């Protein structure tokens, strides 16, 4: 890797990450799979068509790093379906 200040494709700042939108079904499946298999992102991604392991991992990290945002979103979603 170079130390010239140019970031390689392997170096990704979490500040550059955009929020990944998942359906309720995808979120539910990710939570359930995580409880079963832990952070085996490839295995989890294999159960969600069109999603990559890196995408699932990034979603999980962002969702659990910003847990307050998840609570608000989750509560709003529950209110809609009540």
Automatic annotation (TrEMBL):
<dbReference type="GO" id="GO:0009653">
    <property type="term" value="P:anatomical structure morphogenesis"/>
</dbReference>
<dbReference type="GO" id="GO:0090558">
    <property type="term" value="P:plant epidermis development"/>
</dbReference>
<dbReference type="InterPro" id="IPR009057">
    <property type="entry name" value="Homeodomain-like_sf"/>
</dbReference>
<dbReference type="InterPro" id="IPR015495">
    <property type="entry name" value="Myb_TF_plants"/>
</dbReference>
<dbReference type="InterPro" id="IPR001005">
    <property type="entry name" value="SANT/Myb"/>
</dbReference>
<dbReference type="GO" id="GO:0030154">
    <property type="term" value="P:cell differentiation"/>
</dbReference>
<feature type="domain" description="Myb-like">
    <location>
        <begin position="18"/>
        <end position="66"/>
    </location>
</feature>
<dbReference type="GO" id="GO:0048731">
    <property type="term" value="P:system development"/>
</dbReference>
<keyword id="KW-0804">Transcription</keyword>
<dbReference type="Pfam" id="PF00249">
    <property type="entry name" value="Myb_DNA-binding"/>
</dbReference>
<keyword id="KW-0539">Nucleus</keyword>
<dbReference type="GO" id="GO:0003677">
    <property type="term" value="F:DNA binding"/>
</dbReference>
<keyword id="KW-0238">DNA-binding</keyword>
<keyword id="KW-0805">Transcription regulation</keyword>
<keyword id="KW-0217">Developmental protein</keyword>
<dbReference type="GO" id="GO:0005634">
    <property type="term" value="C:nucleus"/>
</dbReference>
<protein>
    <recommendedName>
        <fullName>Myb-like domain-containing protein</fullName>
    </recommendedName>
</protein>
């Amino acid at each position: 890797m170079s130390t010239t200040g140019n970031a390689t494709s392997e170096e990704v700042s979490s500040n550059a990450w955009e929020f990944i939108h998942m359906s309720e079904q995808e979120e539910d499946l990710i939570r359930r799979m995580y409880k079963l298999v832990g952070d085996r992102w490839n295995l989890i991604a294999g159960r969600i068509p069109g999603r990559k392991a890196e995408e699932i991992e990034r979603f999980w990290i962002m969702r659990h790093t910003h847990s307050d945002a998840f609570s608000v979103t989750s509560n709003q979603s529950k209110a809609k379906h009540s």
